[in-house]
Amino acid sequence: MPDGGFGSDHLPYGVFRPAGGGPRVGVRLGDAVIDLAGLSPDGAPGGVFEAPTLNPFLRCGRDVWDAVRDSVRAAAESGADTVALGEVELLCPLDPPDYVDFYSSIEHATNLGRMFRPDSEPLLPNWRHLPVGYHGRSASVVAGGTPVRRPLGQRPPGPDGRDPSYGPSARLDFELELGFVTGDGPALGTPMPISEWRERIFGVCLVNDWSARDLQRWEYQPLGPFLSKSFATSVGHWITPLEALEPHRVDAPPQDPEPFEYLRLDEPAAYDIELEVALAPAGGGEAVISRTNARGLYWTMAQQLAHASINGAAIRAGDLYASGTISGAQPGSYGSLIELTWGGRDPVAVDGGERTFLEDGDTVVLRGRAGTIELGEVAGTIQPAPSFP
After folding, report:
1. How far apart are the first and last CA of the chain?
2. What is the per-residue pLDDT for 1?
């Protein structure tokens, strides 16, 4: 059976609902799913796979994760029973206690700095010293395929420079990101040593952290994004275990200056994952508008997690951390429309027209591939803003 990027070397985890049944945890194999509650793989406590999210399994920790993966792989290679994907409903794999979004691409940060501060250095003084991030709204994390409603909010003053306006965002954007999810970390008040990153990180997924650029421009000073980011964050249905990506672990780009000791790691911690973004207008076909690679991220997920806990903040099972927009060095490799169109100045071509920012009915699809491993795609279609005074 063709595996389509979901073979026995991959075996990503998700949550599904079979016809007439309740939610349960499964592993994807080709175009089918292995029901882990029915399989009862070695090493797992009872009941963790008869759950509406992966959170109970993530609490089990690395020893259990490894034992279950070994058991599931053996079952997959010996012909385990499966259920066709077309016969099940895929659900959001996580209920994140916390969601953190970083700003880890130096190309993306430089591009936005040039747009927003054309007469200053594009990178702020802290950027090369720490992984800049903010806390998002975990209640707004949804599975790919969930429609995204255009948000309402306050927009900055117009050309007259006088008063802000209120209404639907006119500059709605996507953000191409790579996320990772964790098991439990050290107790509250105890920083996680960076050397423990592979003990704490379970796996990765694609993330679209939708962004309302006009709302963001008006609200982000002095405390950063708020309503412009908290309306929706889309994640893939399938969480790829870190072990599956081991053959694709590579050295991260050099860092200058050398980071503080708590952020230093003497092993490869970047991943060679090819990424792309496609956009399809309502009734139209897809056009690929960006291609890039996650290996270029300046700050790695190991450094992101170590920094997030250096003050003693807790790491909890199911926490979601995202890289921030991933952009390459060339215009066709930018991971957001604000970069691809340079703030709306240079529209991109789509099927039957062009775009500066997203219009109602547009569908955005994120895809990623590492060798033979296909990350679960993330799609979302923009719906009109709600009617509200």
Report:
1. 54
2. 39
* Phi, psi at 309, each rounded to 5°: -110, 0
Sign of CA dihedral 333, 335, 338, 339: negative
What are the residues facing 208 on neighbouring strands?
176, 234
Using CA atoms, how far apart are residues 323 and 321, in angstroms rounded to an integer?
Answer: 7
365 band by pLDDT with thresholds 50, 70 and 90: very high
Band (209; pLDDT cuts 50, 70, 90): very high
Pick from 81, 85, 97, 92: nearest CA to 38: 81
- pLDDT, tens digit, 9 for 90 and up, residues 27-77: 999 999 999 999 988 888 989 999 999 999 999 999 999 999 999 999 999
Task: Look at residue 389 in the predicted model and tell me its pLDDT.
Answer: 82
What is the SS3 assignment for 377? strand
Cα separation values, 27 from 7, 15, 243, 328, Å: 10, 8, 14, 32
Domains of the chain (ranges; CATH) run 13-91 (2.30.30.230), 99-383 (3.90.850.10)
DSSP-derived 3-state class of residue 143: strand
- Give me the active site residues, please: 108
| 318 touches 15 (CB < 8 A) | no
Q: CA 206, CA 281: separation in Å to the nearest integer?
A: 21
Strand 249-250 vs strand 270-271: parallel, antiparallel, or unpaired?
antiparallel
Write the burial class of residue 268 (CB in 10 Å: 0-12 exposed, 13-18 middle, 19+ buried).
middle
Contacts with 353 (C-beta within 8 Å, 6 or more apart), sequence order:
281, 284
pLDDT tens track for 145-179: 999 999 999 999 988 778 999 999 999 999 999 99
